[in-house]
Amino acid sequence: MTHSTPVALITGAGQGLGRATALRLAEAGARVVITDLDLALLEQTRALSTRPDAFHLLRQDVTAEAAPREAVAAALEAFGGLDWLINNAGIGKAKSVGETTDEEWDRYTDINLRSVFRFSREALPHLRPGRGCIVNLASIFGLLGHPGVAPYAATKAALVGLTRQMAVDYGPRGIRVNAVAPGIIETPLTRERIQGDARFKAVMIDTTPFHRIGQPEDVANAIHFLCSDQAGFISGHTLVVDGGWSIGNYVAMA
Ligand SMILES: NC(=O)c1ccc[n+]([C@@H]2O[C@H](COP(=O)([O-])OP(=O)(O)OC[C@H]3O[C@@H](n4cnc5c(N)ncnc54)[C@H](O)[C@@H]3O)[C@@H](O)[C@H]2O)c1
């Protein structure tokens, strides 16, 4: 079946980066299936758009057995196809290995990693060759060591590897697979820590050459670029979106 405007599926789009990405892709003309644990948040996302008709909402837990099948089916039924999968839903908290229980480890890997594998497997056969792409939400902590985030960072580093491998396996079918690695972006996930932990703020924000915290739109724009034809020869790449924080040792001199 052909369809003229791209169809995107975005997990965890009730707030934060998923919401900003949904609004950005809709603004660019895409139709979007947005999923989240919280339907009220999804309704708020839709209400913020100038193109509310471009949205299809689905309440689901990405770790549920049927979630990938239901989400892909929703895209096919509501919009007649699927082009872009944005694996965004994720959780994170500052914890070292010693502080992490087995249950927490399983939760991190279930939500941040296993669901990405399962959603990608479900979507791949439906993504249109030459147009289909997947963007995974990794993290700068999936590329660099940082104190106290080991379980989270492990899932994000695994996503960087999964991105590369899927790009190799599905490139010959005309599917591109990329990731973004945001630095610290102001969302409900990070707001509390930025406001409550002066040391974290000093290490993460005052050492950013841009001297500001990232905004969800910074990441949404990068994801839109990776989905677009402009990125037609880019695959297997992890695009860092951190205002230059990770290029190293920036300290304001004045
Ligand atoms: N904010 C940052 O600084 C930052 C930096 C690097 C990477 N990331 C990654 O970006 C993604 C989004 O982060 P965010 O800051 O917007 O987070 P957030 O907590 O603000 O939003 C995450 C959304 O995902 C949903 N969600 C969580 N678990 C779910 C589940 N099991 N099923 C369905 N939906 C679920 C939540 O309800 C929420 O709406 C995550 O993968 C995160 O690891 C964020």
From TrEMBL:
<dbReference type="InterPro" id="IPR036291">
    <property type="entry name" value="NAD(P)-bd_dom_sf"/>
</dbReference>
<dbReference type="InterPro" id="IPR020904">
    <property type="entry name" value="Sc_DH/Rdtase_CS"/>
</dbReference>
<protein>
    <submittedName>
        <fullName>SDR family oxidoreductase</fullName>
    </submittedName>
</protein>
<dbReference type="GO" id="GO:0016491">
    <property type="term" value="F:oxidoreductase activity"/>
</dbReference>
<dbReference type="Pfam" id="PF13561">
    <property type="entry name" value="adh_short_C2"/>
</dbReference>
<comment type="similarity">
    <text>Belongs to the short-chain dehydrogenases/reductases (SDR) family.</text>
</comment>
<keyword id="KW-0560">Oxidoreductase</keyword>
<dbReference type="InterPro" id="IPR002347">
    <property type="entry name" value="SDR_fam"/>
</dbReference>
